Amino acid sequence: MAATSIVLDPVTRLEGHLKITVQVDTVGGVQQVTDAWTTGTLFRGFELILVGRPPEDAEHLTQRICGVCPVSHGLAAVKAQDAAANVTIPDNARIMRNLVQGSNFIQSHILHFYHLALQDYVSIDHTAGVPDMAPWQPSWNTDQRLDSATNSALVSNYLTALDMRRLAHEMGALLGGRMPHPPTYISGGFTTTPRAARLTAFNNYLSRLRSFINNTYLTDVETVAAIYHDYDHLASQPIGQGYGNLLAFGVFDLNPSGASKLLKRGVVTFGTSKKKKKKKVKVKKVNVNSITEQVTFSWYADSTNNLNPTSGETTPQYPKGSAYSWLKAPRYLGSPYEVGALARMWVNGSYSQGISVMDRHRARAQEAALIAAAMQTWVGQLSSAGAVYNQPKLPANAAGVGLTEAPRGALGHWVQYTGGTISGYQVVTPTCWNASPRDSSGNRGPIEQALIGTPVQNLAEPIEVLRVIHSFDPCLSCAVHVMRPGEKGRVFRLDHVHGEDLDHRHHRHHTHRHGP
Fold it and tell me: Is 305 among the domain residues?
């Protein structure tokens, strides 16, 4: 067959607007993806919004980058300020920062598997109790393997998971003040105290969430992985492997300096899960100075290409030659690196099975259990009489870097202050790492590379492509941010769209398996 191009625009069941283009051809008798391009379709501009503002604005404004992982942005922002002011935060503040961020990780991990990825596997089987409504309809019917009993159980757990996400949000709000954008993260510490009644309530929530994670979430991931075994590391050619380069900044500080973390900082490079079996995988230290952002295929000025975020710039240029994305292309030592729960667990030595689609789901579920167990310990370490704040003394002219992890992966904020206000700001998000376009050397981004070799049974319903994409849980809300129409542009408010009209307008796009 001649090569066929499939455009999924927008890809649904993720945050923000992502366009994926894949080329499908027959190789070795198998119809499969032979090339791929990921496109972030909105301009990224939060860095520009922050310039000229007071330092303390950063932790509040950057949380608005995303409603799923705002806590990590708030933490990265205050870590950058803490570093610039050379302030050490009290243990109480460190622990409460961890607890609120842990609450956010748990809700995001549950969201990812049950509400963003599971619909790629559950069949439309009315006898199994799958309702004839969104998010289960409209549906694709390619490669459905689950029996009625399994379908029914997973749909039931999907509904239970909605309650679990609510509990995680309520748990985080006990110390964060509100969710999803807690105001309690400030440079030098935290704005609330660990009151006994709140901690008792926190533990009650955590107990219910741990039960769900250990008895349901972990089991459901293994159930799906066993049936869709070709997406798992035990297959001869696991689907969705990618480069095998993994990077983590580390998260959940265990001491005041942050040198010790629950999930460590490091990089792993081993190519594929098959290669890693032949030799021991070595975890190397991260050199932050070796991070650059390339823009050869991004809609930014070429003069900003290959800069470290410390001196990075956000200078949009659209249109631009062969560029195809608003995402920059972060690189470590010039190479693409995957970030996320799989990378964190590999770097930490907590997971070492593979790097396929199901490995991403499994590592994320196991990480949720690991974090929840640690949170139980942290609650007991809080002291009602302990300090929660040390006054920072931020120099008028300074710079700082805040590195942490969002649920989706490594997150960094780089900030410069001049005359007491923000003069430069760069945010490198997990999805910029994972969904990046090609770089100056022509290397694909991690998602683009992971799609290569993915079999596609039905060109009209490329469900296999979505399974790979969703395993990364892209967040384009984090990666792309601001769009403004031109002078002659007009903005329309759409009050009502009939379902039939909506279906006709999207008929040509293969954008989703379930959900509007």
Answer: yes
Q: Would you state the torsion angle of the CA atoms of residues 166, 167, 169, 173, taken in this order, to the nearest 10 degrees?
A: 140
Mean pLDDT of 314-329: 95
For 147-187, the pLDDT digits (tens) are 989 998 999 999 999 999 999 999 999 999 999 999 999 99
**Distance set, CA 289 to CA 285, 311, 332, 440, 483 (Å):** 12, 11, 9, 19, 31
Token duo for residue 509: 């796009």
Q: Please report the DSSP string for 147-176 in residue order.
A: -HHHHHHHHHHHHHHHHHHHHHHHHHHHHH
Whether 373 is covered by a domain: the verdict is: yes
Q: Is residue 145 part of a domain?
A: yes
pTM, entire model: 0.91
Give the CATH number of the domain where residue 240 resides: 1.10.645.10
Name, in order, each residue with C-beta under 8 angstroms of 383's C-beta and a sequence gap of 6 or more.
Answer: 91, 92, 194
Residues in the chain: 516
- Residue range of the domain that includes 486: 4-505
Let me know if residue 511 belongs to a domain: no
Query: How many domains is the chain partitioned into structurally?
Result: 1
Q: How far out from the chain centre does Cα 351 lie?
A: 18
What is the b/e burial string over 477-506, where b = at least 16 CB atoms within 10 angstroms of the residue's CB? bbbbbeeeeeeeeeeeeeeeeeeeeeeeeb
DSSP character for 94?
Answer: H
Distance CA 311, CA 165 (A): 39
What's the farthest any 2 CA atoms get from each other in the chain?
72
Q: What pLDDT sits at residue 506? A: 32
d(CA 168, CA 153): 22
